[in-house]
Design goal:
Elements: H1 7-10, E1 13-18, H2 26-42, E2 48-52, E3 59-63, E4 69-73, H3 79-97
Parallel strand pairs: 1-2
Antiparallel strand pairs: 1-3, 3-4
Helix pairs in contact: 2-3
């Protein structure tokens, strides 16, 4: 899981959008609760933005160089699938810099 420490090298910003109470955002809320502290400690100056909005579908947005953004819909995903989606976004950012 070395990629976790490379988030700040591959991305410019990561936004996670979720609803505070909807069942669709339950696994996203749990993912944030379990992983935010470790990810932030490995990437202390990186902007992890957690946005809560009533009724919104859970999404993860990654911003790369030159303003390029990619979105992943997290609705129905497990915590493991969300983590894998984040890993894929990070690795995609690393691939564009190679």
């Amino acid at each position: 899981m070395a990629w976790r420490g490379n988030i700040s090298k591959s991305l410019k910003e990561l936004r996670i959008l979720l609803c505070q109470s909807s069942p669709a955002s339950a696994s996203t809320r749990t993912f944030v609760e379990k992983n935010y502290k470790e990810l932030k400690s490995l990437n202390p100056k990186f902007p992890f933005l957690i946005r809560e909005c009533s009724g919104i579908q859970p999404q993860m947005w990654a911003r790369y160089d030159m303003g390029v953004e990619r979105c992943v819909n997290l609705d129905g995903m497990s915590e493991t699938q969300i983590l894998k989606s984040l890993e894929d976004l990070v690795k995609a950012g690393g691939a564009t810099k190679a």
